[in-house]
Amino acid sequence: MIKITDLEKFYRTEEVETIALNKLTMEVRKGEFVAIMGPSGCGKSTLLNILGMLDDPDAGSYVFNDIEVAHFNERKRADLRKHNIGFVFQSFNLIDELTVFENVELPLIYTGVAAADRVKRVEPVLDKMQIMHRRNHYPQQLSGGQQQRVAIARAVVNNPKLILADEPTGNLDSSNGNDVMELLTDLNEQGTTIIMVTHSEHDARYSHRIIRLLDGHTVMENIMI
Amino acid sequence: MIKNYIKIAFRNLWRHKSFSLINIVGLAIGLTAFVLILMYVNFELSYDNFHTKADQIYRVNTNIISSNDVMKEPVTSAPMGPALKADFPEVVESTRIFGDKVLVKVKDQLFQEYRMIIADPSLFKTFNFPLIKGSATQALKNPFSVVLTETTAKKYFGSADPLGKTLVFDNKYPVTVTGIAKDAPANSQIKFDLIYSVSSLDKEYPGRLSQWGNFGNFTFLLLKKGTNASLLQAQMPAFLKRHISESDRKQGMNYALFIEPLKDTYMDPKSYDGGNMNNIYIFSIIALFILLIAAINFINLTTARATERAKEVGVRKVIGADRNQLIWQFLGESIMICLIAFVFAVLLITLLLPLFNQVAGKEICHTIFNHGYLLILLCISVVIGLSAGVYPALVLSGFKPVVILKGKFSTSVKGAWLRKALVITQFTISIVLIVGTLVVYKQLNFMRSQSLGFNKDQILTINFAGDQAVLKSYQTIKNEIKAVPNVLSITMSAGTPGGGSSNAYSELENRQGTMQPVNINLYDVDYDYIPAYGMKVIAGRTFSSAYGTDSTKAIVVNEAAAKSLGYVSPNDAIGKRFSQWGRDGKIIGVVKNFHYRSLQQNVEPLNMRVNPANAETFSVKIAAKDMPGTIAAIQNKWKILVPQRPFNYDFVDKNFDRQYANEERFGKLFLYFAVLAIFISCLGLLGLASYSTIQRTREIGIRKVLGASVVSIVSMLSKEFLLLVIAASVIAFPLAWWGMHTWLRDFAYRINISWYVFVFAGAISLLIAFTTVCFQSVKAALANPVKSLKSE
């Protein structure tokens, strides 16, 4: 599903050039659950942003579903993204002015789903995430665990082929964190590919495979059994 | 999708109430000011447009040419109109209009009317002054017929039918009411309460209508459709040559006729009570400026708040929004704010219109639901929403989600520069308006306090409109009124300072010893006039009954007249010859120049002659103590002496000041709009200051922990904004100087713009800006630093 080859990314400030990704090569197959680990500054988040088409690489190739996307412009990337990829963030990133229902509904609006269909699709997802009873609340009125469930609901409502999770349990206590990991595992079992950046060995154990990064390139891969 | 945008926009507005309030209030006030000025400008430009044939109507003007100047006057003599109609087939109608005062007796009640016009029957064909009762073709046909306006008819007869009723004019002429006309609209230059038939004039003053040399009426021509006015104009010299007798021409009277489209006449500076194109430009610019200030607030506050909206932008982009969708979302929000401001503006305008009409001194507009103003306002609101929203929308929608969601986001330096430039623009406009207001008021004050060259205080004028009965017994009346306690002196004249004067074609002996033809302003006075007004005789002597010849063979001129004849010293003018309206004789005295017109005009040549038989007004000088008692006593005497006339009085000083009514209105409007401009600017500053302090909360916390005092933090936070105001002053001062210098050029007697006007304006705006910013910075400086540091 994903094949990146010799991917490079630099960050330039006025005086210093930092290499974030250094000729990185990796592959993720359909239906996999991959965890990416590594110390701060190793390039995990940069990699995730490029995989999510939020950022473009400086060199190298990125093939998504047999399409080379490394040189796509912003609009093409946005189009590909909204139909194929869902995001889950450490800090949830819900829109404060919208209710739970409206937050989850938002991706469907941007993909042009009719209003009646949206209700039909949002409600089962909310039910599955066990936040149906909170549908008319605003994010500030929810606990962290509930907020992350809303975020996951929003990520999956469009039935994406790939979910990118950036430290999804980072702001949660262990019990809520485990709930979130269970949800992701369920999704994976139903066929969604998941790539997750994490610091937690505990969370990483839910995945099939761990890719360890250091200074912008892969240093080790562990296959989980 | 749209529903979602509207929803989020409303929630956003509600969540940030103070921000929304600043924007909405600022925009609502800006829109209000804009529409009020638009109404004013529109009204001023709409004069006489309601006549359906306005495009075919022309006014005949006369240029009276003498050796010293060309006098352009909007008046003609009585025979010209009919002669023009007879001579030129393209002249369909000619309408003569005379203005007059009249004393009207209705049964036993007396009314002094000041707005009577005497007009040809063609008035109703040329102009749109519809009759409610009576026949448009017959009403003004016969002598001693009068058409009343609705209002006048109601005043005289209440609800009774006035048609066919008889009135008595000037206690002498029985006149029949032959029609009732609708009141003339507010934007009509021709204003009247009564319309009297021209044929009456011929009965009252036989021969008056055939005097080619007596310039006392307007002439309007209705031309055939498609007539080339310039071709008609070209035939005017030949027309005059045909009609003016050899004797008139010998008298040296030389003039030319000019026909002017009716629609141009209101803005013509020579028109009495006309408009002023300069003021229209000035107010149009002010309107745009105020709107600009309000729009700037919107841009500044929205971009300053960008950090707060950044997360939303990032999330929406990650979820699948493309940039266009976000741009439309933000544009939609700004349009919505403008639409809310629109609703408030409609309310504000409705509330303020009566006051505005009062300040403007005329009924400019009754309601915004007229003339499509509502639609215009709506369009402007949407346009502002779009244009003020486009920059913030582009900035916000351009945020990169990667940067935002990682929390590394901060507003760009470029945006801050733009905000600074915009704040400078706002304050530049505000300061220019403040300087303008100060200068206008100083000039007004100067004109009011300037010594006029005569004593204007405590002089009562009683107008009797040249009533023959009064003139017959004037000596008795003067003596009786003079006997009233506290009456210091009484004099009578045609012409008082601040009022009108007649203009006489005359010949005066100049320095070369030849008789120089001049147009000179003329006061008909009595022997007491010059001392009563405290005018200063600087050469020769004043009139005296001791000299028998003074009543017919003497004039007193002013300094300006002596100068125009070439005399270096006023003494040189004494004893020189004059010839004027059938009188010949010598100049016996020169008075120091006095301002008999407003200080906008130079003191022009004037002469006085003894001719109480022409007088129209008594001027009574009274003592300062117990003025109401004195006036009441004079009134009692008047009732006995002149029972046929109401006691209508005025004060010379008030009457003189009334000439500045236009300037006063101008000053008031200027003041109001300056206050609005600075208010809206400060609203914006308040918003900016509060966001800037919020952004710097952490910095303030660290500084306080390190030992910074409250004062040092307040000054740190205020400094940046005060610098902007100072920069604005630097830009504003030369602009304001130039603008006001240009404005002052219209005044013959004017102030110099002194440096402290600028210092004062700068200081005021600094003070106001400082107060605004302090509000925020003191709060921030006093806050407990522990809180701000913990939140990071």
Produce the secondary structure layout.
The complex is a heterodimer of chains A (225) and B (792).
Chain A: E1 2-12, E2 17-28, E3 33-37, H1 44-51, E4 59-64, E5 67-68, H2 74-84, E6 85-88, H3 100-110, H4 115-128, H5 144-156, E7 162-166, H6 174-189, E8 193-197, H7 201-204, E9 209-214, E10 217-223
Parallel strand pairs in A: 3-8, 3-9, 6-7, 7-8
Antiparallel strand pairs in A: 1-2, 1-4, 4-5, 9-10
Chain B: H1 2-15, H2 17-45, E1 57-65, E2 70-73, E3 76-77, H3 80-87, E4 91-106, E5 109-119, H4 123-126, E6 131-133, E7 145-149, H5 150-157, E8 166-169, E9 173-181, E10 194-197, H6 198-204, E11 215-223, H7 229-234, H8 236-243, H9 246-250, E12 254-261, H10 262-265, H11 277-304, H12 306-319, H13 323-360, H14 373-397, H15 401-405, H16 413-449, E13 459-463, H17 468-472, H18 474-482, E14 487-494, E15 502-509, E16 515-525, H19 529-532, E17 537-540, H20 550-553, E18 554-558, H21 559-564, E19 577-580, E20 583-591, E21 606-610, E22 617-622, H22 627-641, E23 649-651, H23 652-657, H24 661-695, H25 697-705, H26 710-744, H27 755-782, H28 785-790
Parallel strand pairs in B: 5-10, 7-9, 16-21, 18-20
Antiparallel strand pairs in B: 1-2, 1-11, 1-12, 3-11, 4-5, 4-8, 4-11, 6-9, 7-10, 8-9, 13-22, 13-23, 14-16, 14-22, 15-16, 15-19, 17-20, 18-21, 19-20
Helix pairs in contact in B: 1-13, 2-11, 2-13, 2-24, 11-14, 11-16, 11-24, 12-14, 13-14, 16-24, 16-26, 16-27, 24-27, 26-27
